[in-house]
Specification:
The chain is about 40% helix and about 25% strand. It is built from ten helices and ten strands. The protein has one domain: P-loop containing nucleotide triphosphate hydrolases (Rossmann fold). Strand 7, helix 7 and strand 8 form a beta-alpha-beta unit. Helix 3 runs parallel beside helix 6.
């Protein structure tokens, strides 16, 4: 469904990604793991069109999408939940969700059905609909950011460090929802520094180091891989 071919990207003279080959099949949950600065965020931004490529290409559903703007990619089904959540200031929970739906130009009935669907998944948000988004706790803001992305009816959900800054109990809850979303049939690409968590939810993973993929395998095999154990699992 999603394919990065020999993808490279740079910030000026700083090469952030080099020769990346990355594939995700429909309904898969795939993790991207690696230390701070490895290039995980840059790869998600390359896929969603926020980062220009210096070479290579991104294909989605078999089509090259390199010429498409980020907005067109969202409309095409690529939803990106950025690092740090980016809840819109001054908007209520419900208004944040409306913005997520607005890219689709869907009818009211369809949007209302989507509201029901995300409120079923995140009952906390239903209770806080009229509150300002940024008055929510960190965990609730993460849920709102995910729910907002779901309102665009994506075909793939890109998640950048959804556990960042969350207390363990909330991390667990956010991850339970992510697993549920994937089990419901949505394709998920998950960036995480918390490798234990990432390898629980994902069935496959890629390990990024200094802008290059150094390993890719099933989550089970990676959990037992000496390099992953030493560098990322703290054993
Ligand atoms: N806006 C930027 N300008 C310059 N360099 C950047 C910028 N964002 C990231 N980088 C550099 O690109 C590399 C990859 O960063 P990033 O993709 O954010 O890594 P990760 O998400 O894995 O922590 C790092 O060396 C980082 O310093
Ligand atoms: Mg990052």
């Amino acid at each position: 469904m999603l394919k990065c071919e020999d993808l490279s990207a740079a910030y000026g003279d700083i090469v952030a990604l080099r020769g990346i080959n990355f594939n995700v099949a429909e309904r898969e949950a795939v993790a991207l793991i690696g230390a701070n600065g490895a290039g995980k965020t840059t790869l998600l931004r390359s896929i969603s069109g926020l980062m220009p490529l210096s070479s290579g290409s991104v294909k989605f559903g078999g089509q090259a999408i390199d010429h498409l703007s980020p907005e067109k990619r969202v409309r095409g089904g690529i939803a990106h939940v950025p690092e740090g959540r980016r809840i819109f200031p001054g908007l209520t929970v419900r208004e944040n969700l409306e913005v997520g739906a607005s890219v689709r130009r869907a009818g009211r009935g369809e949007i209302n059905a989507d509201f029901e669907r995300v409120f079923e998944l995140f009952p906390q948000l239903a209770e806080r609909q009229k509150q300002l988004g940024w008055s929510l706790s960190g965990g609730e803001q993460q849920m709102l950011a995910i729910a907002r992305a779901l309102m665009s009816r994506p075909r793939v959900l890109l998640l950048d460090e959804p556990s960042l800054g969350l207390a363990p109990r909330l991390t667990e809850e956010v991850y339970a929802r992510i697993a549920e979303i994937n089990e419901g049939g949505l394709t998920v690409v998950l960036v995480e520094q918390n490798t234990v968590l990432a390898l629980q939810v994902a069935s496959r993973a890629y390990v990024l180091e200094n802008g290059e993929i150094i390993l890719s395998d099933s989550a089970e095999k990676l959990r037992g891989h000496p390099r992953v154990r030493d560098a990322y699992l703290g054993r």
